[in-house]
Structures are given as structure tokens and as C-alpha cells.
Amino acid sequence: MYQSPARSLCSALSTLCCVPCTATSSSLLLRSPVPVKRALSPPAFLGSSSSAAPPRRGRCHQGASPCSAALGPGVASSRAVCSMGNSTSRLYSALAKTLNSSAASQHKEYLEQLDSEQLDPIDPKDLLQECQAVLQKRPPRLQRDFVDLRADSTSTHRPIRVMQWNILAQALGEGKDNFVQCPMEALKWEERKCLILEEILAYQPDILCLQEVDHYFDTFQPLLSRLGYQCTFFPKPWSPCLDVEHNNGPDGCALFFLKDRFTLINSVNIRLTAMKLKTNQVAIAQTLRCSETGKLFCIAVTHLKARTGWERFRSAQGCDLLHNLKNITQGAEIPLIICGDFNAEPTEEVYKEFSNSSLNLNSAYKLLSEDGQSEPPYTTWKIRPAGECRHTLDYIWYSQHALNVNSALGLLTEEQIGPNRLPSFNYPSDHLSLVCDFSFNQDPDRLL
Questions:
Q1: 261 Cβ neighbours under 8 A, 6+ residues apart
Q2: H helix or E strand, kind and range, residue 264
Q3: In sequence order, what are the beta bridge partners of 389?
Q4: Alpha helix ranges (H) inside 265-383
Q5: Count of beta carbons in the 10 Å neighbourhood of residue 69
Q6: DSSP string, 49-78
Q7: Would you tell me which of 206, 254, 281, 410 could form a disulfide with 210, CB atoms 3.0–4.6 Å apart?
Q8: For the ranges 111-125, 152-166, 414-428, the one whose mean pLDDT is highest
Q9: What does the pLDDT average to over 177-204?
Q10: What are the b/e assignments for 387-425, b being 16+ CB within 10 Å?
């Protein structure tokens, strides 16, 4: 069942592209190379000062209210099994059966770092070309521009690019989420994973924070480790992916950072609590040292409870996460960046708790607004049987006394997203990726 990453690149990419390969382990060519038609325009890499104004916000409330078993584990026995299409890998179908409510303690071997030291590195340009070859029949990647937010340019060091993204678990996309306007063909994993990788390769983050990752071991860890990232994964104890037939195992949070830019000082996997009880939501927090500046900072990724009616639950989870991060950062002595799908609009209590925390946090994407105080009108936009849902749920929080936001990636416009909303043939998730460039403040005490 468990497949070691110590395999040839040809083998790894046969999973990625679903095309038999006859190349050597140092080659990334498909068996039948085709001209690449999905060229990336320079602004996607280099950024620009332009930003399209997004449309006004619409709202949709959906989802059931909490049942009497609000804290989770009791509902597992009554779950229905949803069927998936044949495109999903069954590599971890056996693992799915073993990861029960005590998975985090009983199956620690699946959380260990996989040894990739013996594998040859991948040139990101070659991997990008592979992805584009697989995607040649799909529309081009949607254009997004970086917005320059620097008040000055005093920093002499390279910025730290952080990417936050709920990539949509494959099992949920095909088996449970009911995107009624999205053709099932658009959700095929063989192509959708190339759309995800193309987005990551386009923006080349130094740190990548992902949620709803259910193809960590067979896709993201083997490939990203060979692009130079150190990889960490923490699955949900009772992942809803396990309700789906032929699933690929549990989904969870994943954190990746470039080893040539940062050194890992400390890593903590956090199972969030609410009302003194452990919940199904998790977080990863890692303290890194920047190789160029020698400075420490903490990066965290999380995914809070979804659905309307669980606002108090999310608030409790947020308080627990903040408490943990206060200890990890020694009460904000160490700068902090928190990425996540909070499943909460800015009107919710958990958002206010982060805004008013003693950690002195600010939300980076507020800086894109005219007044610098308003969140984007949406970070997710989808159509389900209950109706159209457009919400702001995803955030990148940062220590505003110690870090500056140099730039942020603009959102897709309504016209770009299209009438069928997300996901689609040219965008792989129902959530938009958020990308920010950070630099260390030269006077870190000024806002304390």
C-alpha cells in the first residue's frame, strides 16, 4: 500500500500525467511530446501594479445546523458513502480504512517526512512544460497581476513569497461537493492536478500553505520535494474524504518551504480544540530561520470548521489556535504569518479575535482595498444545488509590527471566473489562491 518516494522520475510523472514514459530518470518528456500552447504571460511571474476592481458581493447561506453531536466523532457511524469517478487514484484506499478517529496517534508513520535525498531534483520549467502538455486542450490559465503595496523600498533582502490555497480535495470535488455547473470532466484528477501544479509553478512561492490535500503522498510530496521544498502533512482525524468510495485517503493541511531559503527550527502539529474537546480540524506551525537575514519567524496553516451555524465552534477553534501560536512565538517576539481557510466571513467572531489579538495581526488582503480596511468581496465562488455562494473565507494574517506586505496577487474578476463559477476547466478549485510578498520591517518596534 505505502509507496516509497525513492523511485525514478519517470515513475513519478507517469502518475502525474497518466502517459507511459520511456525517458530516463533525468528527463521530463512525455512519450509523445506536443507543442505547448498554454504559454504563461510574464506578469504572472513578474507582477504588475495593475489590479482589476472586483464586483460587489453576493451572499449565500447553506449547510445544516449543528446536530446534537456537535463536536463530531459520533456522526461517523451514520455517514453515507458517495461514489467517485474512476479517475481518482486508489493508492491509499487501504490507508483510508486505517485512518480512524485515533489516526494521528496510531499511524504516525504516515506523518513522517519522506526521504527524498536520493532523488534527482526537478527543473520547475520542465515540470511546468509537462503540465502544459497535459492541459493543451483546456483554456489558458487565467491572468492575475500583482499589486505593489510598498510604502518604500528600503529593504535590501529578497521578499518572502507566501501562497495560501484551499485546493479542493479530489474526493470531495468528485463525490460530495455537488458543483452543479461544473462538468465532471473538468474534475478529472489527471488534469486537475496539473492545473494546481501550474498555478503553484507560475507564482513560485517560497512558502506554500495548502488545505484539502488528499493527494499528498502520491503527488505533492514526491514532486514538491524534488523542487526543493521541505514538506509536512497533517491529516484530519475524521476526514470527510473517507466517506467517498475509492478515496485517496484523508485530506488535511500541508506546509512546504524552500530548503535553500529557510532552516526548520521547530515544527508543531496542532489538533484544534473547542469547548475543551479535540475537534476534527488541524493546524501546522513551523518556526523557520531565514538564511539571508538570519531572522526567525513562524508560519502556520489551518482549516477551520465549515458551514453556517458553526460560528461559535469556529470562534473556539480560533481562540485555541491563537493560544498555541502565542506560546510558539513567545508572545509575538517571533514574527508570525498565518494562512488558512477560516470558513468565516469578516463579520464572524473568529475574524474579530484575530484582528484584535495581542499578537498584533493584520490581514494582508485588506491592503488591496482603497481604504486598506476592507477584505476582498470574495475568495470562493461556486454554485451548488442550494444556490450561488460567494464568500470571503481565506486569509493571510501577519505580524504587522515586524513584517511588511510588499505586494499581493489580485483576485480573478467576475468576467474571468465566468457564469458557471468555480471550479471549472480553467481553474481547479472553488477557492482562489492568495499570494503575498513579505519583507522584514527594519524597525520592528514601531507598531508594538
A1: 160, 206, 290, 291, 292
A2: strand 262-274
A3: 382
A4: 311-328, 349-355
A5: 12
A6: S--PPPPPP-----SPPP-S-TTSGGGGGG
A7: 254
A8: 414-428
A9: 96
A10: eebbbbbbbbbbbbbbbbbbbbbbbbebeebbebbbbbb
Distance, CA of 264 to CA of 160 (rounded, Å): 15
- In whole angstroms, what is the distance from residue 225 CA to residue 424 CA? 28
Q: For 367, which DSSP code?
A: G
What is the DSSP-derived secondary structure letter of residue 190?
A: H
Question: What does DSSP say about strands 434-440 and 160-166: parallel, antiparallel, or unpaired?
Answer: antiparallel
Whether residue 85 has pLDDT greater than 60: no
Report how far residue 110's alpha carbon sits from residue 112's, in angstroms, rounded to the nearest whole number.
6
Dihedral sign for Cα atoms in the order 213, 45, 343, 352: positive
Number of neighbouring beta carbons within 10 Å of residue 426: 18
* Distances in whole angstroms, Cα of residue 210 to Cα of each of 77, 252, 293, 314: 28, 8, 26, 19
| Residue whose C-alpha is closest to residue 196's, from 427, 430, 446 | 427
- Is the pLDDT at 14 greater than 70? The verdict is no
104-113, 251-260, 263-272: least confident range: 104-113
Q: What is the pLDDT of residue 151?
A: 80
Report yes or no: 439 and 403 within 8 Å, Cβ to Cβ.
Answer: yes
Instruction: Measure the CA–CA gap between 44 and 142, rounded to whole angstroms.
Output: 9
374: cell is 476592507
Q: What's the rounded Cα separation, in Å, for the pair 201 and 193?
A: 12
d(CA 19, CA 7): 17
Name the H helices within 260-310.
none
**What are the grid coordinates assigned to 241, written together?**
474524504
Q: Look up cell 492536478; give the residue.
A: 193
The whole-model pTM stands at: 0.78
Phi, psi of 164, deg, nearest 5 = -115, 135
Which are the contacts of 128, defined by CB distance < 8 A and separation ≥ 6? 40, 197, 198, 201, 202
The per-residue pLDDT for range 331-384, each reduced to its tens digit, is 989 999 999 999 999 999 999 999 999 999 999 999 999 999 999 999 999 999
Tell me what the mean pLDDT of segment 21-35 comes to.
33
Residue positions counted in the chain: 448
Number of H helices, E strands in the chain: 11, 15
40: number of Cβ within 10 Å = 16
- Per DSSP, 243 falls in state G
pLDDT grade, residue 445 (50/70/90)?
low
Residue 41 to residues 38, 124, 126, Cα–Cα distance (Å):
9, 16, 17
Percentage of the chain surpassing pLDDT 70?
72
Mean pLDDT of the chain: 81
The residue whose grid cell reads 484523508 is 250
Question: What does the alpha-carbon distance between residue 39 and residue 136 come to, in Å, rounded to a whole number?
Answer: 10
